[in-house]
Amino acid sequence: MTRKPVVEVRRSQRRRRTVSAYRDGERVVVLIPARFSVAEESEWVDRMLDRLNARDRRGRRTDASLAARARRLAGRYLPDHPTAAHPASVRWVTNQAGRWGSCTPVDRTIRISDRVQDMPDWVIDYVVIHELAHLVVPSHSTDFWALVARYPKAERARGYLEGIAAALVLNVR
After folding, report:
1. Cα dihedral 119, 122, 127, 132 sign
2. Are 114 and 93 in contact (CB under 8 A)?
């Protein structure tokens, strides 16, 4: 029998229609609009738990699949940097509480926070592309942002991550 995880529901006045959920360690955080009734909250918590469990059944994202994803993304969005945009390693890490990802251009390593694993694929792609772009341009210069902007969902993903970060800050207070 599967144990039901601890669920933390975060209501937001700014959230109008969307509901999202992600794992944070042993608990599940469900983000809902503040106007939801108790019944709607319960329905959405169950629905989001089902979605997360279905994703888990499809298989946890591995370091190998993350590295393959990085190679595909580099080939698609940074084809004019065939050697520069290829990392020596890409892996999931558990020690990044304040960042979604990090890159060390000197040794060409990329680390992606495991907090991103349960986010939508297009958000993971953005985080990976952001770090790949650092292999080409280490700073957050105009040239760097031009490379990141090649990814069509870059602004949308940044907004998604900013929303998650804001919800986390609001919940701490």
Report:
1. positive
2. yes
Task: Chunk the chain into consecutive blocks of 10 residues (it has 173) and report each block's average pLDDT, rounded to whole numbers.
Answer: 77 88 83 93 91 71 89 94 86 88 94 90 96 95 97 96 82 49
To which H or E segment does residue 68 belong?
helix 63-77
CATH superfamily of 63-162: Metalloproteases ("zincins"), catalytic domain (3.30.2010.10)
Closest CA to 100 of 77, 133, 123: 123
> Does pTM top 0.85 for this prediction?
no
Residue pair 19/30 in contact by the 8 Å Cβ criterion: yes
- Residues of CATH 3.30.2010.10 domain(s) within the chain? 63-162
Q: How far apart are CA 161 and CA 109, in angstroms?
A: 22
